[in-house]
Amino acid sequence: MYKQYISYAVLLLASTLCVTAQAYANDQALAETPVFKRVPPAYEPDGLKWGGFIVKPQIEVETRYDDNIYSAETAEKSDFIVKTTPSISITKEYKDNAFWFSGEYGMERYAENDEEDQDTLEGLFGGLVRLTSRLTSGFEFMAAKSYLNRDTPGSSRQTARPVEAYTSSAEGFVNYNRNRLNLKFLGNVARKSYNDSADAATGNTIYFSDKNRMVYGGALETSYQLLKTDDTEHKFFTNFTYEKSIYDENSNALSANDYSEAGILAGFSTAYKGLLFGKIGVGYVRQDFKNTPNQDLWDIEVDLAYNITPKTTLKALAGRELKQDNSFVAGYLDTSYTLGVDHEFLHNLYGGASFTYSDLDFSGGQSTRQDSDYITNMYLKYYHNTNFESRLGWRYKERDSNTAGASFDNNIFMYSLTGKL
Question: What global pTM score does this model have?
Answer without folding.
Answer: 0.84
